[in-house]
Amino acid sequence: xxxxxxxxxxxxxxxxxxxxxxxxxxxxxxxxxxxxxxxxxxxxxxxxxxxxxxxxxxxxxxxxxxxxxxxxxxxxxxxxxxxxxxxxxxxxxxxxxxxxxxxxxxxxxxxxxxxxxxxxxxxxxxxxxxxxxxxxxxxxxxxxxxxxxxxxxxxxxxxxxxxxxxxxxxxxxxxxxxxxxxxxxxxxxxxxxxxxxxxxxxxxxxxxxxxxxxxxxxxxxxxxxxxxxxxxxxxxxxxxxxxxxxxxxxxxxxxxxxxxxxxxxxxxxxxxxxxxxxxxxxxxxxxxxxxxxxxxxxxxxxxxxxxxxxxxxxxxxxxxxxxxxxxxxxxxxxxxxxxxxxxxxxxxxxxxxxxxxxxxxxxxxxxxxxxxxxxxxxxxxxxxxxxxxxxxxxxxxxxxxxxxx
Amino acid sequence: xxxxxxxxxxxxxxxxxxxxxxxxxxxxxxxxxxxxxxxxxxxxxxxxxxxxxxxxxxxxxxxxxxxxxxxxxxxxxxxxxxxxxxxxxxxxxxxxxxxxxxxxxxxxxxxxxxxxxxxxxxxxxxxxxxxxxxxxxxxxxxxxxxxxxxxxxxxxxxxxxxxxxxxxxxxxxxxxxxxxxxxxxxxxxxxxxxxxxxxxxxxxxxxxxxxxxxxxxxxxxxxxxxxxxxxxxxxxxxxxxxxxxxxxxxxxx
Lengths: 405, 253
Prior knowledge:
With 405 residues, chain A is of the alpha+beta class. Chain A has 13 helices and 12 strands. Chain A has 2 domains: 3-52 and 271-403, no CATH class; 60-264, no CATH class.
């Protein structure tokens, strides 16, 4: 029997009972759609995590003061603040694998201006800060190296602060007082959203490092130094280079422990990506179960259909169909149904993904691989669950089949 | 001398029902030549259905030999039986046995879809011709439920014809039809027979057997009579008579 005829016979049978065919395929449609959507959601979540990490600045390296060790007794992380602007300048002039460096001078306090007052944190940084944190301004401009050296009393607001103090006005050019020191607002940062621990990135005021250092913290040490490496792959080498510069700056002799810690985002990124990968696998396998249930549905309907169509099988055998023709016909019907279910399922999953992406916070990211996988799986289910009913049909005896009422 | 289409020698079929052996056919020897129109008769249980199944290659004998169109079927595999059914035999059943929800044309086309000899290039054209031959050229796209019993049986005859078989096997073809329609169906058979097609008719009604040219009568699995019909009925004449009868009845009313 020619392939063309096999397909002709199978398609005619499927189209003869449209409702039943649709219901049979429904299990596969839902199964395939579930697998594709679930994996897409897992994948979307993974991408969101990756984006979030990238928003921190994927090349970001943070140097924090390490625990000072006195007489073998560690006094804990950050107990001995001894970063200075000299350290920052030394890194800036000596490091070769970095694109920017900024000190971070932390302060905080009540800010008065605009429509009221607001408690927030203030960070004193260098003009490199925006690039290091891959952040942008929504309006205004950022301060320059001259502002830093001149201890200019200018600042840039995080979007959250701008919203709270200036709900209706343009904050640019306005004055605010931070702990009674007047600052002029020269820019507003774009919204960055939540940090990985759930606080807002945007509840912040940025000002020149030396201004904050001298006017607000009263000349205390720098709390951390942030550096961006030239590329993610150069992070390990950049870290090593920074370590040497810092040891040199702090005049540590051989055998003395580092009095600082150098960290990057890689560890955090790997952990977070692993978690969302496991999520994807979990979601995918739950959906996979529904695909198998869909396959059992096909087998069920095909078995009923073989009984119901016994007479038809008898007719086909009497006019010269071989038992292999019958086997192939029923198998083809099962495969065509599951592949059609696969196509409709993929179409449905695109619809669901579209709705998720446009009307909810969930990001669904459909990748071509998963479509091919789900499709192949649907075909395999058709063959697997279609074989038994098809074989049963092909084993019928023509005389008994013709007599069947 | 006409060619043998069918020859059986010592054809026997025994069924075992539990421990009881039922001899459905006992050493049947028959010969049927090309162009014959044979009616196989017998009461129920006489073995005529068994003989029909054996002649139709739907079943295999317990012993004996069966030649169809020169082929000895004794050592045939299931696939070879299927090929014989496809190429040499056209079946017409009592219950029409058409595929429901399938147009007349597609039903008639069906045997050609299973053809492995590639004898026919254009199945649709072939099926159309077969339907025209039985007078259903205008009903090709109707499904069985839209056709009368007589029309359905004519679709079945077209299906039996379409693969140019060596013989047509008709098993009680008019069992489900009224007498008027039955005569019409027999007129189709007689026409086909005049065109040279060999027909074997299985029936238990003597009235219909008389449309054939020869009667083989079975009883208890044996051939008890085998004779040519002298006063053969012409279906066309019978149709005319039936028409005249109804005209007369109308006049009386």
